[in-house]
Design a protein that fits this description.
heterodimer, A: alpha/beta, Rossmann fold, six-stranded parallel beta sheet, B: alpha/beta, 2 domains, seven-stranded mixed beta sheet, 14 strands
Amino acid sequence: MLELRVFEQALLRQPKPGFQLLSRGQEATAVGVCTVLAASDPLLCSGRSIGIALARGVPAGGLLAELIGKDGGPNRGRAGRAHVSMPSVGLYGAHGVVAGNLSVAAGVALAQQQLQSGAVTCCLFGDGACGAGALHETLNVAALWRLPLLLACDNNGYAVSTSVRDGLGVERIVDFALPFGIPARTVDATDVDAVVDAVAEAAAAIRAGGGPRFLDLRSVRLGPHSTLTKEERPAEEVESFAQSDPLRVYENRLRQQGLLDDAAWSAMQARVQARIAQAERFAADAPWPDPAEAVLDV
Amino acid sequence: MSRLFFREALARAMAEEMARDPRVILMGQDIAEHGGSYAETRGLFERFGPSRVRNTPVAEAVTVGLAAGAAAAGLRPLAFITYLDFLMLGLDPLVNYAAKLRFKSAGQLTAPMVVKATAGAKGQGPTHAQSIEPWLMNVPGLTVLAPSTAGDAYGLLKSALRASGPVVYIDHKRLFPLGGTVPDDEQTIPIGSAALRRDGRHLTIVAHSYMSVVALEAAALLAASGIEAEVVDLRSLWPIDWQTLADSCRRTGHALFVEEGQEVCGVGAELAFGLRERVDGLRVARLGARRAPVSASPVLEAYTIPDAPRVAEAARRLLG
């Protein structure tokens, strides 16, 4: 989680960071999911992909190059934040269309079922995707065909400026899954241990042939929607998010349990800073793509 | 050669490809026990079973998305869309995902999928009848096929099921009752090749799908009055076989483009421009549907869609 946080700080230091949707505040979701699921378990996500891609194992230097449009990234700079993929680590990709990856993920899960791979396909999507028809069509077919699919809402409470309360007609997001008979849980995703437990339980049930599972992983978005968006949420609400910062929550827990002290914390920060500095150098040295690449692989 | 109905040629192509490659699966509405909306999947459910011949809910968006995701993850799905109009509901996964996948992943992921949809007017009204092929031709990354004969349907569907990227295969309601010759041994037809259906020296009529049948009828009418029309059946709308088209246009100097869809930004508009760039002095004309929705009334439908007399009249006008 610390690495994800420090990576995004490095991204913001770039001369032209571009249009980015940061994962700040949602790191426990990314890390929790990727702690449980292996690279052989296909992962798809929304355009808020940076933390998820790093947690899944995309090398930090390559990811940074990708995000700023340079060659040297997993997709040679063509995909960027909204479409980054790296099949060698099971990242089937982010998707810039809200809710666009849901039915695709069901197809990836169908392939796993058909090929009997035993893998769990996971799709992370924002709370903003829950009002789209794609979710309901996907839930229906996932239930009907008992697809090995984990649908996990990476819920930060806001679709740009519209809160879950203002944008969705249900009391709880899990209510969307229940009519299809898909077991669903609400999870405090500011707590990485809670995410790990919930994903592990769901993945085990799916692997046992139990069909799809649904999780509402609730966290907070510590900053505005994007690097190009102004913060519009009430100041007191944004200030209150500090208590829900998953990094701080976990740091405090480790300290309380006696597993972390100031020295260890400083050493860990120094290690991570060094790794990310190396990633920054990689991205700085990476070449821009040859313009002629714009028409390759069409 | 055997004589098969168009639907039988499709069924044979699918059966052969499913036997050849276990990754080929079929998904669509009413394709299992029912045997397909046009009886074109008859027998496949019984032969290949429920995991490879899957009925889907009436939900085109998820159907195309399932095909795209399954293709990215190693299958070769064929998704059926009963009416091409309904593909509008599935354009997001097709256009925003599948068509871009190879490019955006820098070649690491592909979507070897086929969407088979049925276009054309046959009395079913405004939203069961549209020919929107040019929308699809406009998308980088999509292959678009629209055969007019049973033999081409067979050979092109087989090629589509072996292709590396997303293919939209479009047939036509009025083609299903027609028969045609299909080779007895397994054969494919290369994607991107047009077919010369009739030789002629005065003008070239270019068409695809059912309008190729209409173009041949028009050519027969013209022949009765001494005008010899060459007829080129596109078969593949993208990629376009510019060579065959340009060769024919050089011979005749006149090209008439006929399509069942709208003329505005249509197939003919694109081809006329491309051929004017390639063939000096080429005179061109186009004929498509009149600018109105397709009607449920046979009288109103017939008024909007090109038929053989209108095609012949347009040809005479072009020749002056």
